Amino acid sequence: MRRKASLILLAFAVFFTAMSPLMRWYAFPRLAKIPANQYQTMVLEAKNATLVDYGTMQAKKVPKLTVVQTLKGNVEESDKIEKSAGRDVVVWDGLSYIVGPDGKFVSQIPERYIFDAHSQEPVHATGESVDGDPVKREGIEFKWPFLTEKRDYEYFDARARITRPIHYKGTEDFRGVTVYRFEQTIPWTKVPFPKKMPVKGITAESVAKTGTEMWYTTVRTFLVDPTTGAPVYGEEKHKEEMRGGTLLGGDGKKITAFAGDVKMREDYIEDTVDLVKSQRTLVLLLTSYLPWGFLILGVLLLALALWLEARSRRPGNPEPEALDEPEPVSV
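Structure (tokenized):
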């Protein structure tokens, strides 16, 4: 019985030991992915910002600007692209919508972001765009890969339609989560006017005809949970200027169209941190808890199997000899 039990334990030991690397290196890359139907909203604010008044063409201070950023998974488009791409694809229809302190529309930039559900690498397909213009992204946007590394990444800037490095700046604690800090600087770059303008009768085309140009620069910071690759905090020191043209009264003149330190609103920070804490448990289950647990269990079962096998091979103790009964004495 002992030998039979040791063989069964040995089989389980081999199974769990083999499952340890398979769980980490085979199952995790295939199971960890962004759901195609994900929907999320983020609200950011810029307090004491500067904004152009298109009526007077003068820059003015405003107490607050609000940026509402939505990302909505387009399942129908994902299914179409997956058939031709031959891999799991996510399509996010995004919108950055800016309103002033009075709740009135300031600007908006829609975009469609298509990427690999597992690696977050961009997938180039029909419909990939920013503000209706076709683009070909390089690098990540919105989210880092699962198990983010301590290194620089290429990050796509939707406003300028360019990709630049976003640099790893260190590790820190943020609201009880160990995060990586990443920073990117976009130098002054000429960018298109938003196609939807806040004043009736003024369009991107009409402004461009005056010779006036829009220039943009920003310094963005993200705090990223390295397990899930999800940012738990974001901030941009954003500035846009209108330069030259007859609209401003001649070349060499410029006015600030928008300037402000745009930060995630406090209530959305709390919700994001709570969400990331719950999601990182699932990732750790596949990358750490189960692989290490299976390995330790396999080693323990192997040790128990060897112990039982050794016991079964040990010679038994000799049975005591029966004492001869005394023979009767004859008289």
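The longest strand covers residues 58-73. The helical segments are 2-31, 75-85, 204-209, 266-313.
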